[in-house]
Amino acid sequence: MRGQFGLSVQQQLMASGAALVIMVSASPAMAQTRTFDVPAQPALRGIPTFAKQAGIQIVASGSAVRGKRTNAVRGSYSVEEALRRLLEGTGLKASPLGTNGIITIQGTGPGEAEDGSAPAGNESADILVTGTRIRGVQSPSPMVVTTRERIQDQGIDDLGSFARNLTQNYNGGQNPTVAGGGNQGRQNNLTSSSSLNLRGLGADATLTLINGHRTSYDGIGQGVDISAIPVVAIERVEIVTDGASALYGSDAVAGVANVILRRDFTGLYTSARIAGSTDGGNFQQQYDLVGGTHWGSGGFMGVLDYSDITAINARDRDYTRNLDDSQTLVPAREQVSVILAGHQQLSNGATLELDGQFADRSAETRFPYTTTSSAFTLGNVPHVDTTSYTITPTLRFALPGRWQASLSGTHGRSNVDIDTRAFSAGVLTTRTGLAYDNSIDALEATGEGPLFNLPASDVRLAVGGGYRRVGLDVLIQQTSGGTTTTTSDTSNSRQIYFGYGELSVPLVGQANRLPLVESLDLSGALRYENYRGVGDVLVPKLGIVYRPVRDITLRGTWGRSFKAQTLFQEFQATEAIFAPGYYFPNFPADQYVLLLSGGNAGLRPERATNWTASIEVRPVNGLTLQASYFNIQFKDRVVTPATSSTSAFSNPANADLLTYNPTLAQIAAAVAAATNGVTNLSSVAYSPSLVAAIVDNRLRNAARQAIQGVDLSADYRMDIGPSETLQLIASASYLESDQQLTPLNPVVDLAGTIFNSPHWRARGGGIYRRDNVTVSAFVNHVGGTSDTRYTPAEPVRSFTTVDLVARLRSTESAGLAQGIEATVAVSNLFNQAPSPIRNSSLIDPPYDSTNQSAAGRVISLTIAKKW
Fold first, then answer.
1. Percent of the chain at pLDDT exceeding 90
2. Are residues 229 and 304 in the same domain?
């Protein structure tokens, strides 16, 4: 028998102590009646056989089920009754159907050792989900769980694209498709990384974990580059769309994403993918190699991924023909990624796990200073090399009383080398080298287990503590006229000590349920963190999960969050640009502006209060509806004051950024703050006497920032025939946000304005499966915004695209054709172009690249084979 992922069931389950997933399809209601024919057999085969016939999702543990046998189940039963018969007397038990549509299989008393301890991974609550530190309980926070299979069914080829399809995620910032070199979206795309940016709060406000542990920041944006992790290397992605600083610490203000790697793989898997935009540019090649093996007490998996993507230049799109042909819209990039994951049972109660990742990426972007000459005539050409790695060993071991403990250490680095060549009159005038070296070293110890038993279930406690050091070294050198000058050489680090506790109290459960109280669970978490040189903080979080009846679940959370300013925010280079006035609306075109951007060593930590409320309803078999409301109130939020530097004079809220008719002393002070002196974008020689205004757009703390909105989702699965299913999926997010720079400044809208999150994002479609064929179609909608850079504001229309995917799997059981799969995908089927916008600067892209892509229609073909 083979599971959905093409691995034998035994291969999927043999991992010792590893949490493994058997996901056959989205779950119907447990009361649905089905006909079963499951023989008595080892649990390694019996559980997947049952899951397939029941059409449910089951999460099990290799160590919990190994050596156990499941019962025969034959005849027509409800799924709930059939599962009870399958496991009766086996030493295994099933959790209630989770609100994420997953059932967990756990070990019970018969699996305990004589001293009362359980073998590693075999305690009564073995499954840990993101959003809680306690095993076997539901997170009170809303979650999005997506498996590798579902990602591939939708034709998504990398986790960066997966993030850009999430309705809760804002595309701007660290994203290869963001153009304009920082003029759009507040950040830049020089490293071509892809970071999650939940709620549009910035990549540094969304914590991204790999198998539950931190990794090094990306070299520029101080987020985590998820595109460095190949889709073929993951089991699933779990995203908590709620503040979680009390559980995971700083960076988790907007939410947490946990990328779960595949723990076990036996054999060899290869794939090759080619793709390209029908309008030109963006030719993609991607090659994957997955190999692994397992043995009775452990397993190992390795992934090698190579991708090469050509640039999209202005010449490739009709709507950018006003730009110079050489100007880059989306940069060329080349990347190699390596993922390693392994585990080994050391004894009956101890398991060692090891995760490792490596990525090397290069990218080049071309920025002409005019529309009539190339970047090699007048402009600059940054070439960026990014190398990153992280390694994390983790020791997990059992303690008496069904407690489990772990000790893990992480070491990681991300090095970015930017070589920028500046040209004037076709001559290389200066060469600037910027090296950003991020590092992380962390040590964490955890413990989790039951305290005592209530009628509903165990009261459980998770505790932990540790140490983390993050570092940022910056080296900037400039070569001009044969002379090289070091303008910045700094080494900065921050040490963090932390401790936390989380308590889960099940008041009502299956054993003592009441009318209109099927279950009721309370939880609370408290975390202390000491940031050396910044301060210390104690943040709480409270949660509730209430199920009045089996098919309705209510959740609620309240908490406080703390985020220290990142080292990059403090110590990134300050840039001074001398630009003509016609770049800036509402400023005299014949005058000149000195624009400052970059870091600020005087920043303060950010603090936030956030709460969520959500409801999940399963009104009919196979249908799940969810709705969540979220509210985040920030104080001292670190922001780039003007969304677009060129719009500084257009908005009255930017008054504090402007200095008109500055004195020579003020101009000298501004230039002195610039790491590499003045960059001249004008056609005249720079002179302080020409500066008519200074715009200080360096980072600063905003007095307040407020974010609120609603997430909606629907998931419906229907069985059309014995091996034929249709799954309909839809999600939408509505967002409102505003900001006040100082108590005396007006409150200005963020969401719904150009280069910020739109109010609405939505995605919906269906996946049809029949035997070895899968076909999917999805519609993506990005709402329109308002271009507030001008008076009156101009509308920017919405952006709607259609994606189609077809997958065909070979049915051959032997020979060369065995294990072959082909996928054809078309994204943006109707070749929707971005909405045009008006710019005061003619060299800026004439569309909002933070929300709308220039890729156009992309056609791809993937051939894969399991050997």
1. 54
2. yes
